[in-house]
Amino acid sequence: MGKPKVYVTRLIPDQGLDLIRQFCDMTLWQDDLPPPRDVLLRETHDADGLVSLLTDSIDPELMDACPKLRVVSNMAVGFDNINVSAATERGILAGNTPGVLTETTADFAFALLMAAARRIPEGVAYVKAGKWQTWGPMLLMGPDVHHSTLGLVGLGRIGAEMAKRARGFDMRVLYYDVFRREDLEQSLGLTYAPLDDVLAQADFISIHTPLTPETHHLMNRDRFSKMKSSAILINTSRGPVVESDALLEALRSGQIAGAALDVTEPEPLPADHPLVSLPNCIIVPHIASASAATRGQMAEIAARNLIAGLKGEPLPSGLNPDALGHGRSALPKDW
Ligand code: DGY
Questions:
Q1: Could you identify which of 29, 66, 103, 127 might form a hypothetical disulfide with 35, taking C-beta atoms 3.0 to 4.6 angstroms apart as the criterion?
Q2: Same domain flag for 160 and 250
């Protein structure tokens, strides 16, 4: 009996690949860019398992093109690229990598907040352009971070870690979430408020929601109009939570003061997109979880989810345990 066939859609850290190689017959897409759709459909047709990234759309068409597929293991905490209910219907297990990237992502969200407030990228560009002639009493002033108000939209794991960092800077922290977290209100000194109140009171708004039909374009024209004109938006969640055109308008008109984005709509944002050239908008290429240690751990969890699914065991971080023992996950294995 051979090993199960798995397809890995990009080069991921060895912590994951080494485990996968031990147990599986692995095909690895080595290009820097994701496999094109036709390649993905073709290459996965006989796969028992798939390690996907947020750049791969794992939809019913793909699931039906790979009739043996039993497990899809996403190397990301977000899983809006996977149609989980379609996977469950087919008995395909799906997994993600929560937990290990929480603090790393919160560190980065706070770094974006600091960089935007204190205008660090503008300062770097100023020096590189040879404009630094003297100490300037009016040069590149921005708002203070300490003792300001942070508004969190979404208080999951990463939002809560962002709150901890903010407390270290003596910030007042407001939050809005569909689930009220009185435990965290107590332990972290947070205040719950309706979304419009959070938007109206905060100096910094940081988005920490998953992308769902309910959060798609949550930050739209109407929501920007509720924010302070001095406020800065930080987004490390998913690009489409913020409507790009509305953000562009809000930044250009001075409706809000600035934005710092790790994620964009569309993603990647073309270099000639008007948001890219705005001086009050920082954009980085979706790297909030990109510490070497965290990406290694994400790869390892993705591998462990994959292997568990192939064995017909519950995934360490499963998204649809109901799929276990039904449909594909219950079929006899031919490896
Ligand atoms: C995720 O895991 O969902 C991030 O966006 C990438 O680390």
A1: 29
A2: yes
Q: Is 103 a catalytic site residue?
A: no
pTM higher than 0.90, yes or no?
A: yes
Reported in sequence order, the residue ranges of 157-253 that DSSP labels E, i.e. its strands, are: 172-176, 190-192, 204-207, 232-235
Q: Quick one: pLDDT at residue 99? A: 97
Amino acid sitting at position 136: G
Q: What residues of the chain score a pLDDT lower than 50?
A: none
For 185-197, how does the pLDDT look when each residue is reduced to its tens digit (9 = 90+)? 999 999 999 999 9
For position 119, what pLDDT does the model report? 98
Taking alpha carbons only, the member of 25, 59, 12, 17 closest to residue 40 is 59
pLDDT at 59: 98
Residues 271 and 141 in one domain: yes
Neighbours of 25 (CB within 10 A): 14
Residues 122 and 255 both lie in one domain: yes
pLDDT score for 271 = 98
Distance 195 CA to ligand 1 centre (A): 24
77 and 64 within one domain: yes
The answer, yes or no, to whether any atom of ligand 1 lies below 6 A from the CB of 289, is yes
Residue nearest to atom 2 of ligand 1 (CA): 76
Tokens of 249: 């308008």
Number of domains in the chain: 2
